[in-house]
Design goal:
The protein is mostly beta strands and about 900 residues long. About 5% of the residues lie in helices and about 45% in strands. Pfam families: PKD_4, TSP1_ADAMTS.
Length: about 900
């Protein structure tokens, strides 16, 4: 097939194939038979068809046969074109009308002996782009491709993908070499001037070149790619001359469930849609496909108006009477019977001879002879097989046959499944028996007889001294046997000769692994158990050893060793002095302690209770700090007067060499003093307002240890006692509000005692002068030290309920200003008396209720010993600082103010 004329440049394809107007009715009726120029065929290129390689649907295309640039007379040429709407052969050549888009193969053959058929392909398009390419090509050879572009499309770019992982290629008419012998899908992606992208593709079969089959590249499907519902469409496979004798069959699949099997077929579709059509070619008698060609048909709705009938033409008209011509028909196949129930496919081609004869005043070609020429004969398929007994086995069926009818073993061991494969029975020819009787293995084949065969034993009871059971004389059991279809059948079973004579047992005592119970859990005795046994080791009743004396064996034992196992545990506390000491100006100590658990385990060893292990396991050292700041605290748990404090100090000085804890305290804090009422005070100093108190960390939580109060007391104290702090007096509960100031630049405000201590408020409010307690002016007085408890303890508290509705909570010994300007203890007040508010106003006492308070109480020292600076404001009432419970105790119950009160101050 001349693909060289199909693969024109893109512009030429459009110009030649798509700019020609559709044929008019007149052209369709008369078939524009204008001659085609044959001059383009070079000399020496052989006979070729000249025509248009592309066209727009609805066009009529002219073809001519040319050789060496000259046209061959059309009357001497046989023309064929499958699938065209209409075609007319003339003296000038062939004119073919194409109403539907498609790929059409035009075939021409000169009417001379030995002339070969030549072909030419025209791609017809309507609105869709089509690819011009072969269906078959050879590996390692150039293959050319092209596109047929409708007149309505302007191409902007083309990208070719040859389906073999090579880079994309641009251009309108590329060539490509394929190396893999397989089906390649070639795609062309076309972008038009409106940026619309269209992808067209073609499957191409790449095969290896075989001598004598060079023309295989011309194999192609001829027919439309468009049709209408229920309109018969003709399709044909063009088979070039080099394959005419090699192709044995062509099978079609129309994509709608229908098939056909000839070179040229006709098919009508019943529904619109796009259908994939395939034509598969088989070589010779082979049942394996050689090549499958793909085609696609788009079926649309049939809305055509019937055309006016045209004047018929006579395609058989001829010119020279007596002239003869010969041509070969297309391939067709027949199924014929063969062999035993088999069939074979025989392919024929008719060779027809026609003669130009006068028929009713007209010369016409008339067939004078038709010879049926066989082109290919397939193998005989599906034959049945003849079995040894003369019956038939269908093709594909199987039958079990046997190499012998009476094997020594199973029939399966001599069986063989023989299958019928197209008249040939598979397997060994020796497997020719239709039936089989199972043998009995080493016994023999079917029908074998043996007599006196030993098949077992017969036991006869033997009589012994103690009437023992289970002792027998053994005799053989015999029978006569016959092999019947794989089973040995017994008959005449009977007792035979003696096999073994029974033996009566002999008895004696034998030791066991068992002993009597042990007499003690540890270090007892037990006796071995002896039993009577026969000569086979079986235990029997001891009466059968009655004429014998059983041996006696003893051994040392432990009846229950775990019962005597015990553990004794004890724990001790180890203490180590820490390398750390309390920071400067702190009182207390840092200790390290750990628990040591000692466990002794006693067990049964060598049959007596002995110490098995003695293990001491210490815990980790735990370091605990008992350091406190060296500040005065109120110690209600160890409250001393000055005489008692002096006695304790003298006792400590006396015992310091015997008690390192006391010596360390006296040494480290010898020069440490605090200010009380503006004076430097130390433990043991003049006045002795401060005294040490002790805690014992052996308790959790720790408890006070009350040290001696006289120098004559013995120098003994617990090892876990230490000096905890120094003590002074204090009286208010934590929630009582004191007028105080946190910072030097702050303002005086009421705050709870506990907050004033926690925040270490630097100033408190006191009276401005000692002239009159009726002054409403207060001043800021610098705090020397806030005082609280060392530990939480239970206190007696007096709750004052006032006529104003206010409340005040104090310890009984807390100093409070009276209505007549004196200072006395809270416990000395009675209901009906009055407390003095800031400014001198009196607030009568409604009730005084004693309660218990568990926790701490609080007070404060100021940096002044002046009386008026030690009169503070708590909950709005005038009361005394810690001064009045220490060196200011001398001012209790005496007039505090130098100037009499203004009359009426206390009047209400």
């Amino acid at each position: 097939m001349n693909y060289g004329r199909v693969l024109l440049s893109l512009s030429l394809l459009v110009a030649a194939g798509c700019q020609k107007p559709a044929a008019t009715n007149e052209e369709i009726g008369t078939f524009n038979t204008a001659s085609v120029s044959c001059e383009s065929v070079p000399t020496g290129d052989g006979v070729q068809i000249v025509g248009e390689s592309s066209a727009q649907s609805g066009s009529a295309v002219n073809y001519a046969l040319a050789e060496a640039g000259n046209c061959v007379n059309g009357q001497n040429v046989s023309w064929k074109v499958a699938g065209a709407s209409r075609a007319v052969a003339t003296k000038a050549g062939l004119t073919s009308l194409y109403k539907q888009a498609g790929s059409y193969v035009v075939v021409a053959q000169e009417k001379t002996a030995g002339a070969a058929a030549v072909s030419f392909q025209t791609e017809v398009v309507s609105t869709e782009i089509a690819m011009s390419a072969p269906h078959i090509a050879f590996s390692y050879s150039d293959v050319s491709f092209g596109l047929v572009i409708p007149s309505s499309v302007t191409v902007k770019s083309i990208a070719w993908d040859f389906g073999d992982s090579t880079p994309l290629q641009a251009g309108m008419n590329p060539t490509h070499i394929f190396f893999d012998e397989r089906v390649h899908t070639v795609k062309a992606t076309v972008t038009d001037s409106a940026d619309k992208v269209t992808v067209v593709s073609r499957d191409i079969n790449i095969i290896g070149l075989v001598d004598g089959m060079e023309c295989a590249v011309d194999v192609s499907i001829s027919g439309p790619t468009e049709t209408k519902v229920k309109v018969a469409t003709t399709l044909s496979v063009f088979i070039p001359s080099c394959l005419t004798a090699k192709v044995g069959a062509v099978r079609w699949n129309f994509g709608d469930g229908q098939t056909a099997a000839n070179q040229t077929v006709s098919h009508a579709y019943n529904a619109i849609g796009t259908y994939p059509v395939t034509a598969t070619l088989f070589l010779g008698a082979s049942t394996e496909p050689w090549i499958t060609l793909k085609h696609s048909i788009r079926v649309i709705e049939n809305l055509d108006i019937p055309e006016e009938p045209e004047e018929p033409t006579n395609p058989n008209a001829c010119v020279f009477q007596g002239e003869k011509r010969m041509f070969e028909g297309e391939l067709y196949s027949e199924v014929q019977a063969c062999g035993i129930d088999g069939t074979k496919t025989v392919t024929y081609r008719d060779v027809v001879i026609e003669e130009c004869q006068l028929v009713v005043e007209h010369l016409e070609w008339k067939e004078t002879s038709r010879t049926k020429e066989k082109t290919n004969e397939g193998e005989c398929q599906g034959q049945s097989c003849r079995l040894p007994d003369g019956s038939l086995l269908a093709n594909g069926a199987s039958k079990v046959l046997y190499t012998t009818s009476t094997p020594a073993n199973t029939c399966e061991s001599v069986s063989e499944v023989r299958s019928c494969n197209n008249g040939v029975l598979s397997g060994s020819q020796s497997a020719n028996q239709m039936t089989c009787h199972e043998g009995c293995g080493s016994f023999g084949s079917h029908g074998t007889v043996k007599t006196g065969v030993v098949i077992g034993e017969i036991q006869v009871q033997k009589q012994c001294q103690f009437q023992e059971q289970g002792i027998f004389d053994i005799f053989n059991q015999v029978t006569d046997q016959t092999c019947q279809d794989g089973s040995v059948v017994n008959s005449n079973t009977r007792q035979g000769d003696i096999k073994t004579s029974g033996s009566c047992p002999v008895y004696s005592y034998a030791g066991t692994d068992n002993y009597s119970s042990c007499s003690a859990d540890c270090g007892g005795k037990q006796t071995r158990v002896f039993v009577c046994r026969d000569d086979k080791g079986n235990q029997v009743d001891n009466s059968r050893c009655g004429d014998q004396v059983a041996p006696v064996e003893e051994r040392v034992c432990d009846g229950n060793p775990e019962a005597v196992r015990r553990q004794e545990s004890s724990s001790t506390t180890e203490e180590a002095n820490s390398s750390k000491v309390c920071p400067k100006n702190q009182i207390g100590l840092i200790v390290k302690t750990r628990e040591v658990v000692n466990t002794k385990t006693y067990a049964c060893i060598n049959h007596s209770v002995q110490l098995e292990s003695d293990v001491s396991v210490p815990t980790a050292w735990v370091e605990e700090s008992f350091c406190r700041d060296y500040v005065a605290r109120r110690c209600s748990q160890d409250s001393l007067n000055n005489t008692e404090a002096k006695g304790r100090y003298d006792w400590m000085v006396k015992c310091q060499n015997d008690l390192p804890v006391i010596k360390e305290f006296l040494t480290n804090f010898e020069n440490v003093t605090i200010k009380v009422d503006g004076k430097e005070v130390s433990v043991g100093g003049k006045g002795r307002e401060l005294y040490p108190t002790f805690m014992n960390y052996a308790y959790k939580p720790e408890k006070p240890w009350i040290a001696p109060k006289v120098a004559s007391a013995p120098c003994t104290m617990p090892a876990t006692a230490y000096v905890a702090t120094v003590c002074v007096s204090s009286c208010a509960t934590p929630e009582q509000q004191i007028l105080a100031q946190e910072h030097a630049n702050g303002k005086l405000k009421y705050m709870p005692f506990i907050d004033a201590l926690t925040k270490n408020a630097g100033y408190v409010a006191s009276l401005q002068s000692a002239q009159s307690m009726g002054s409403k002016t207060v001043v800021k007085t610098k705090v020397d030290q806030w005082v609280t408890e060392l530990i939480d303890t239970e206190h007696d508290i007096l709750v004052f309920k006032m006529q104003s509705g206010r409340e005040l909570k104090l310890t009984p010994n807390h100093p409070v200003v009276t209505a007549d300007g004196m200072m006395k203890k809270a416990g000395e007040f009675k209901s009906g008396e009055a407390l003095v508010q800031v400014g001198g106003a009196l607030d009568p006492i409604v009730s005084i209720t004693p309660i218990k308070h568990f926790g701490k109480v609080y007070n404060v020292f100021v940096q002044s010993s002046a009386i008026h600076h030690n009169i503070l404001v708590t909950n709005g009432y005038l009361n005394g600082s810690a001064y009045f419970q220490n060196e200011g105790a001398k001012d209790m119950n005496r007039s505090l103010f130098r100037q009499k009160l203004t009359r009426g101050v206390f009047d209400k």
